[in-house]
Amino acid sequence: MNRTPTNMTQHGFTLVELLVVIAVLAVVLAFSLPSFNDFTKSQYLTQAAEQVLGDLRSAQSRAQNGVVDGSKECWGLVMVAGQAYYKVGSVDCSLACASFDAAQLGSSRTLNFSGVVQASNNAGVIFSKISGLPKCPIVFPATLTLQLDASTTKSVKIEAGGNMYVQ
Of 162, 156, 159, which Cα lies nearest the Cα of 48? Predict the structure, then answer.
């Protein structure tokens, strides 16, 4: 007695079909990895620019609210070209813009950029007490520029009226 059905159909994939699918997926993955790496790097840059903007707003808010650190009543932020960090802290309001650098910051905190981001220009800004308007730099709009490489940059712009944005 033959117990095997005569109209039995087979379900599943052949080895050749599975190998073709794996090959197609490998090709798609090989083409998408460089784009994903570029996207990841640009996200580091965007995140760093948003971090600087947030800290600028915090310094501006501290100046507007009259937060005093010893005799230093203004607040500022300094970036140094080629460095992967910046400093935020209190500063003497009588300080001349030309001499403003990280050494003049009172109790400052150093913040590191994520990934391979670094500042591409020397820049600093001081916010005046109570008004919160930028006292330094002298030329507006001021630009704090961050870079991954020579062709990939993001800028944080500061206008004379105190408005700030990422560009």
Answer: 156
Q: How large a percentage of the chain has pLDDT more than 90? A: 19
CATH for 138: 3.55.40.10
**Domain with 27 in it:** 15-166
What is the count of structural domains for the chain? 1
Pick from 113, 110, 47, 124: which is nearest to 80 by CA?
124
**The model scores a pTM over 0.85:** no
Determine, yes or no, domain membership for 46: yes
Q: Do 92 and 72 form a contact (C-beta atoms < 8 A)?
A: yes
1 domain-assigned: no
Residue 8 lies in a domain: no
Distance CA 59, CA 162 (A): 12
pLDDT at 26: 94
5 found inside a domain: no
pLDDT tens digit string along 1-59?
556 556 667 788 899 999 999 999 999 999 888 888 888 888 888 888 899 999 999 99
CB-based contact 69:106 (threshold 8 Å): yes
Cα angle for residues 50, 90, 123 (degrees, 5° grid): 50
